[in-house]
Amino acid sequence: MAISLAYLGPQGTNTETAALAYARILADTTDEKIILHPCSSIAQTIQSVATKEANLAVAPVENSTEGSVTITLDTLWQLEQLKIQQELVLPIPHVFLSRGTSLQGIDTVYSHPQALAQCQRWLTHSLPKVKLIPTNSTTEALSLINQDPTSAAIASPRAAKLYDLPVLATNINDYPDNCTRFWVVGLNPNTVGNKITLGFSVPANVPGALVKPLQIFASKEINLSRIESRPTRRSLGEYLFFIDLEVENNHLTEEALTELATHTEILRVFGQYSVTPLSNSILSEL
């Protein structure tokens, strides 16, 4: 038997780095072989678990600079059978790659939209007139610049080594502590950890519709570390709400979720899980 672990490919993406690190964590708990399964989009990565093409998937959910990766939230809501197994926190450094010899000769920059946004201030300052073209992943961009010295890409230092591309600039992300949260999702529910993610819709768009659910957590002194709204796509002005809550008392948390069900239209608990920061020492071994 083997465990198939899906991630946004191709080789060299930040998601692959997170997947490789998680594969090492898995290797300490199982004797089964772990096979990485690259996918061409974040949605396909998550869907591959629902269709049983993969056992687990690693998908980005939030960046410290640019906020939520909304396609992950939307896809998880649509595929209610999926559960969060664990959260990984990965430092995200960006470098500027090109076959050109200087920044002055660059007129086009390719990368994933998140990477472009995370380096927006550097791009505006260093290359104010450059054309920015989004790609499905940071490493997909690398194939587009290999034969064109007037183009460049933003990717990880690891990708630069893997694809043997010259680095024209390092540490170009706008904030030095740039990091991304990744969720590991699977079909089996997890009930251990100090964090729960849930999503819900409210019965009607009326005053107090959101306050009542939030008051439940406040009354039980349960801390909410994150709240995010997404459109229901049924009509303008209707929203779904995603919440991360910290678990300190399982009994109080269970009471809160039971009470929450009486104030929501649809309630989905995506999983209880632990958070694992990925240290630079682990990443340097990948």
Task: Record the SSE blueprint.
Blueprint: E1 2-8, H1 14-27, E2 33-39, H2 42-50, E3 56-63, E4 67-68, H3 70-78, E5 83-91, E6 95-97, E7 108-111, H4 113-118, H5 120-126, E8 131-134, H6 142-145, E9 151-155, H7 157-162, E10 167-169, E11 179-186, E12 195-201, H8 211-219, E13 224-231, E14 239-246, H9 250-260, E15 266-277, H10 280-283
Parallel strand pairs: 1-2, 1-3, 5-15, 7-8, 7-9
Antiparallel strand pairs: 3-4, 3-11, 5-11, 6-9, 6-10, 12-14, 12-15, 13-14
Helix pairs in contact: 2-3
What is the structure about, briefly put?
The protein is of the alpha/beta class and 286 residues long. 28% of the residues lie in helices and 33% in strands. The strands form 2 sheets. Strands 1, 2, 3, 4, 5, 11, 12, 13, 14 and 15 form a 10-stranded mixed β-sheet that branches.
Structure description:
- The chain is of the alpha/beta class.
- The chain has 3 domains: 2-90 and 178-190 and 275-283, Periplasmic binding protein-like II (D-Maltodextrin-Binding Protein, domain 2, 3-Layer(aba) Sandwich); 95-169, D-Maltodextrin-Binding Protein, domain 2 (3-Layer(aba) Sandwich), CATH 3.40.190.10; 195-272, Alpha-Beta Plaits (2-Layer Sandwich).
- It is 28% helix and 33% strand.
- It contains 10 helices and 15 strands.
- The protein has helices spanning 14-27, 42-50, 70-78, 113-118, 120-126, 142-145, 157-162, 211-219, 250-260, 280-283, and strands spanning 2-8, 33-39, 56-63, 67-68, 83-91, 95-97, 108-111, 131-134, 151-155, 167-169, 179-186, 195-201, 224-231, 239-246, 266-277.
- The strands form 2 sheets. Strands 1, 2, 3, 4, 5, 11, 12, 13, 14 and 15 form a 10-stranded mixed beta sheet that branches. It has a 5-stranded mixed beta sheet with strand order 8-7-9-6-10.
- Helix 1 (14-27) links the parallel strand 1 and strand 2 (33-39).
- The radius of gyration is 20 Å and the shape is globular.
- The two termini are 24 Å apart.
